[in-house]
Each structure stands twice: as structure tokens, then as C-alpha cells.
Amino acid sequence: MENTSTKVFGLRAIIEAINASQEIEKIYLQKEIKGVLALELNALIKENKISSSYVPIEKLNNLSKNKNHQGAVAKISSISFTNLEELIEKVLDNNKTPLFLLLDQISDVRNLGAIIRTAECTGVNGIIIPTHGSAPVNSESIKTSAGAAFKVPICKVNHLLDAIYQLKAVEIQIVGITEKTNTSLYGIDFKKPTALVMGSEHKGISSSVLKIADAKGKLPLLGEIESLNVSVACGVALYEIVRQRR
């Protein structure tokens, strides 16, 4: 495991952190905070005996750097990253049709968070990101993921190509979503064990990764805009996999 200290802000994200048994140092709540999620969070704080205090909104603004904190900020001890070899072994032992997601240098934290959220909703077994050149799994990406970052195993690897060769070695097909192909996404057989690859916002999937992909698929674009936001494209692709497997 690799650990990185961070803050988490947003009611839902903090609730998910508690439910995922993350070690929480302290939770700061806005004075007189109300609502269903606030009540749920307060109940969890009492149940788990978590240190907390009520503070003015200015304190929360400072802790979250004026992001949309929804009246709650938590200091957590760490975000844990899973070892790739251990994850592959565990998934293969427990899942007949694994689904992995490789992110080739996604640089925007909000895109990363949105992708993690969709990955959790679509049953992805693990997300693999490069150590260098990728958006961090930080407070903003965690909030955008609505806490899903605590539910989906995330692996950091030095080289994405090495991860791909590890997956190919256990007969998991590598499928790149790219406009650099004539094959439709909907023509690919996703009932096989699959690792889906999504590329960066500006350059797409790197040429070295595309060269070793087992299949490449593109999304139909019927308007004048030449591309989709990567988190949207990822959602479309993941739900096509869900559709085929159901």
C-alpha cells in the first residue's frame, strides 16, 4: 500500500469515507448545519466516536480553499493505493469476468473524480493510473467521485505499459477508446475479461499503448463537436459493457 495524506470535503464524500473504514483524524462541521445528509453524518460521528467540532463557515472555507464543502470538511490519515499484482490475483479468484479501467494520464481532477464515480457504479474491479502525469486522488477528485474513491481499488504504477502486459498475461483483453479507428465501440465483444483504456483530455491514448491494445473502439459523434469529455466517453463505454454483460 502507498499512503497520501489529504482532506475530504462534502457531506456524501465524508460519509463514504467513514463507511469505507478510513481512519479519520477530525471532522469540522458548519455551525447549525441541517439536512438529511448532515443528520446521517452526525449519527456516524457518534457511532464511530470520531473527533469533531462545529466551526464558523470561514474556517471551512479556509480548510477547503473555498471549494463547495457543503458545511463539512474531514482530515483523513491516508488514501490507500492497492498493489496491482495483488489486485489482479484477488479479482481473478473472485470474478469470472473481470473489468479493469486504465487511465492514460487523465490530468483534470474533476474528470478523474467523475470517472471513479462511474467506475464504482458500473462494477469496475480496479482503476490503474500512472504515478507520473496523472491527476492526483485528492480532496477535489474525491468529492467529485461522491466518495467512490474509497470504494473502488486504485493502483498506481510507474509505467502503464507494464500494467497492460500483466493484464494481457492473464488473458484480459485491452480495449482502447479512441477516435483513431474505424471500429465502433458497439462492435467489440465486452463479455470477455476486459481492461478499458481511456486517454488524456488533450492527447488521447498514447501511441505506445494503442500499439499493444487488442481492440480499439470509437464512439459515434453526430454533431459538429469533434470529441466528448473523457469522463462522459468513459461513462458511455462502461455502460455499453454493462449492457452486453446483462
Walk me through what this model shows.
- By secondary structure, this protein is an alpha/beta fold.
- The protein folds into 2 domains: 2-80, 60s Ribosomal Protein L30, Chain: A; 82-245, SPOUT methyltransferase, trefoil knot domain (Alpha/beta knot), CATH 3.40.1280.
- It is 37% helix and 24% strand.
- It has helices at 11-19, 36-48, 57-63, 84-94, 109-121, 139-144, 160-169, 207-212, 230-245, and strands at 2-9, 24-30, 52-55, 72-81, 99-104, 126-130, 154-157, 173-177, 194-199, 215-217.
- It has a 6-stranded parallel beta sheet with strand order 7-6-5-9-8-10, with helices on both faces.
- The relative contact order is 0.15.
The helix fraction, in percent, is 25-40%
Question: What is the overall pLDDT average?
Answer: 91
**What is the CATH architecture assignment of the largest domain?**
3-Layer(aba) Sandwich
Largest sheet: 6 strands, parallel
Could you tell me the CATH topology label of the largest domain. Answer: Alpha/beta knot
Widest sheet, order of strands: 7-6-5-9-8-10
Beta content comes to 15-25%
* Order of helix and strand elements from N to C terminus: EHEHEHEHEHEHEHEEHEH
**Could you give the count of β-strands?**
10
The value of Rg in angstroms is: 19 Å
CA-based shape: elongated
Count of helical stretches: 9
Straight-line distance between termini: 33 Å
The parts where pLDDT drops under 50 for at least 5 residues are none
Name the CATH homologous superfamily of the largest domain: SPOUT methyltransferase, trefoil knot domain
Structurally, the number of domains stands at 2
CATH class of the largest domain: Alpha Beta
Q: Return the structural class.
A: alpha/beta
